[in-house]
UniProtKB/TrEMBL annotation:
GO terms for biological process: DNA repair; DNA replication. The gene is ligA. This is DNA ligase. It holds the Pfam family OB_DNA_ligase. Keywords: Coiled coil, DNA damage, DNA repair, DNA replication, Ligase, Magnesium, Manganese, Metal-binding, NAD, Zinc. It catalyses: NAD(+) + (deoxyribonucleotide)n-3'-hydroxyl + 5'-phospho-(deoxyribonucleotide)m = (deoxyribonucleotide)n+m + AMP + beta-nicotinamide D-nucleotide. GO terms for molecular function: DNA binding; DNA ligase (NAD+) activity; metal ion binding. The keyword RNA-binding does not apply. Belongs to the NAD-dependent DNA ligase family. LigA subfamily. The lineage of its organism: Bacteria, Candidatus Tayloriibacteriota. It is an enzyme of class 6 (ligase). Zn(2+) binds at C419. The active site is at K127. Its EC number is 6.5.1.2. Transmembrane segments: none annotated.
Length: 676
């Protein structure tokens, strides 16, 4: 029996013709004029869509079709390992202008610190797309290998890492060091592994990183051994001995110790050479057996690294310059508004599903009203989307040549049902964002409670969004403080709750009663305040009551806290319902000093030091590393949370502030005694 052939619709024929015209336009620009308006990946995506239509309707294939042209958080199974040295992430740059701005920013900061930047240089290293590991050696022997985790606590993967031949189990000299690097899998090895998995009818890996991470996170070390994993070590995070004076020397020293270091690092005398290195490796990266997704640039001189220091989120002395992200084209099928926990409305584009960066994408954030206007994106548009790593997909460009005239502009509504009340919305003064007028809508309260119990906030394991919604629906809870008054009997009558699961939830709630300052501040859903900002506030204020009563001026004077954040924090605490919620929560909670969370055990565990002036027996970096290796913390400014100020010669204003705050000041001799 013959199959009935389906005829193409007029809309499909129009779409095919538009695709042919657009592909030809960009093919000519790229191959003839050497002009690129969209990425090669986006163009390939358009070609694929054309081929799919022609495959369904072969009669539509014409000789002039482009298709006919041959064109030129730690897993529970693993022991948790507190990191002795905080694991930072670099800020990103994506183009030449951002690279140049990084250089300008570094020089401005150093000049403000009265540093002479005449000898400033940079070290460039390839950014390997793998799984970060932190290796700790004592007396030259590998003691632990851990994943990055959340930056404070990682997973103990020592036995798996030991199977990697390039990781020395014993160094060439008996050093006490902590080093950082990347575990990776070669492209050829991935191909062989996937061929084997196909024969076994097992799911294949989308990329080498997934295969490497999957191998390291297996309980059976034999799995890691079978994957032929490799490493590149790139950072000497801590050492009892003197740290080399430059980043370039540090990489050479790591090789001397016996680590495998990527051989393609380079010393650049100025930022123009950095740009050249980045552009060169943008072209050369695909030829390597390992995946490279950018270049890491660090100020070469350690003295300047020390002066630059860190923001609340990343080092000031370094940046990760990404290669062009993977892109594809698709169609915007709808634009909706999503209500966040702080009441801010985020426009979300619903997309025709498309594969990008190893995953299928069907949604992309449009950020705010100004972004929609800048892109001129409309429902029905063909757009270029970009996804880099784990970052939420973005719409980066509309392809106007694909428009048919039926596309619809997005109009901001007068009301949004999820906002509750009359559903009214308003634009936040001075910002591009809109928010619900009613800050206590049901949807917003649900999202606040979802966040309150999440791992980033109070970390109440087992009490997820579905259970929160069920408790709200049955009027068992109405606010965060109600969670701490829950008893086993409150769950009676609710479906799918066995005694064991109820006991586990109650145990998790009780466990979360002992928390840190920064976790509580994070959990309160204060607009503009995330984990990093909460950490900065925890450093500044002795307790939550002091933060509650702080003036906008006090808040704005904290490094990393600008006027917008300061006003937001002060405004939140000025509201009576918020103060009442906090008072109720404090009746149930024990707030521990935040700096003790995740700090490795050691003689200086939980102690905060500030170093000022010049020490005669060691550099400031050596002193800092000595404190970190013993579990202590070193900060750049004196506060009421500081335990010791170590004063060398010419200590400066930090000594005066220490005396004013009655912080204990010690000299180098006493400091050495404490270290011993």
């Amino acid at each position: 029996m013959n199959k009935i052939h389906k005829e193409p619709t007029s809309a499909e024929i129009k779409r095919l013709n538009k695709l042919k015209e657009t592909i030809e336009h960009h093919r000519y620009n790229y191959h003839v004029l050497n002009k690129e308006e969209i990425s090669a990946e986006a163009l390939d995506s358009l070609k694929k869509e054309l081929a799919d239509i022609e495959r369904r309707y072969p009669e539509l294939i014409s000789p002039d079709s482009p298709s006919q042209r041959v064109a030129g958080k730690p897993l529970s199974e693993f022991r948790k390992v507190p990191h002795r040295v905080a694991q930072w992430s670099f800020n990103d740059a994506f183009d030449e202008d951002e690279i140049l701005e990084f250089d300008a920013r570094v020089k401005r900061f150093l000049k403000s610190e009265n540093e002479n930047v005449s000898d400033l240089s940079y070290t460039c290293e390839l950014k390997i797309d793998g799984l970060k590991v932190v290796l700790t050696y004592e007396n030259g022997y590998l003691i632990t290998a851990a994943t990055r985790g959340d930056g404070k606590i990682g997973e103990d993967v020592t036995e798996n890492v030991k199977t990697i031949e390039s990781v020395p189990l014993r160094l060439k000299s008996p050093e006490d060091v902590i080093v950082e690097g990347e575990v990776w899998m070669g492209k050829d090895d991935l191909k062989k592994l996937n061929e084997l998995r196909r024969k076994r009818e097992e799911p294949i890996f989308a990329n080498p990183r997934n295969a490497a991470a999957g191998g390291i996170r297996q309980l059976d070390p034999a799995v890691a051994r079978s994957r032929n994993l490799d490493t590149f070590i790139y950072d000497l995070a801590a050492s009892i001995k003197k740290i080399p004076p430059t980043q370039f020397d540090e990489l050479e020293y790591l090789r001397v110790l016996g680590f495998k270091v990527n051989p393609h690092f380079a010393l650049c005398g100025n930022i123009d050479e950095v740009v050249e290195y980045w552009k060169k490796w943008m072209k050369k990266a695909p030829s390597q057996d390992y995946m490279i997704d950018g270049v890491v640039v660090k100020v070469n001189e350690k003295k300047y690294q020390d002066a630059l220091g860190y923001t609340g989120k990343a080092p000031r002395f370094g940046i990760a310059i990404k290669f062009p992200a993977e892109e594809a084209t698709t169609i915007v099928e709808d634009i909706t508004l999503q209500v966040g926990r702080t009441g801010v409305l985020t426009p979300v584009a619903h997309l025709r599903p498309v594969a990008v960066a190893g995953s299928t994408i069907s949604r992309a954030t449009l950020h705010n009203e100004d972004e929609i206007k800048r892109l001129d994106v409309r429902v029905g548009d063909t757009v270029v989307i970009r996804k880099a790593g784990d970052v939420i997909p973005d719409i980066v460009k509309v392809i106007p040549e694909m428009r048919t005239g039926k596309e619809e502009e997005f109009v901001w509504p007068v009301r949004v049902e999820a906002c509750g009340g009359d559903g009214g919305i308003e634009r936040i003064p001075g910002e591009a964002a809109w928010r619900c007028k009613d800050q206590n809508s049901t949807e917003q309260q649900k999202r606040k409670l979802h966040y309150f119990v999440s791992k980033r906030a109070m970390n109440i394991d087992g009490l997820g969004p579905k259970i929160i919604d069920l408790l709200l629906k049955n009027n068992i809870i109405s606010s965060a403080s109600d969670i701490y008054e829950l008893e086993k009997g409150d769950f009676s009558g609710l479906e799918r709750f066995a005694d064991k699961s109820i006991s586990n939830i109650i145990d998790s709630i009780n466990k979360s009663r002992h928390t840190t300052f920064e976790r509580l501040v994070t959990a309160l859903s204060i607009p503009q305040v995330g984990e990093e900002t909460a950490r900065e506030l925890a450093r500044k204020f002795k307790n939550i009551e002091a933060l509650r009563d702080a003036s906008p001026e006090e808040l704005e004077n904290i490094e990393g806290i600008g006027p917008i954040v300061a006003r937001s924090v002060h405004f939140w605490f000025s509201k009576k319902p918020n103060r009442e919620l906090l008072s109720k929560l404090l009746k149930h909670l024990t707030i521990e000093p935040s700096r003790t969370e995740g700090v490795a055990s050691g003689s200086l565990s939980g102690k905060v030091f500030v170093l000022t002036g010049t020490l005669s027996g060691m550099s400031r970096e050596e002193a800092k590393q000595a404190v970190l290796m013993r579990g202590g913390d070193v900060t750049g400014s004196v506060s009421s949370n500081t335990d010791f100020v170590v004063a060398g010669d010419n200590p400066g204003s930090k000594l005066d502030k220490a005396k004013k705050l009655s912080v204990r000041v010690i000299d180098e001799t006493e400091f050495l005694k404490i270290l011993k």
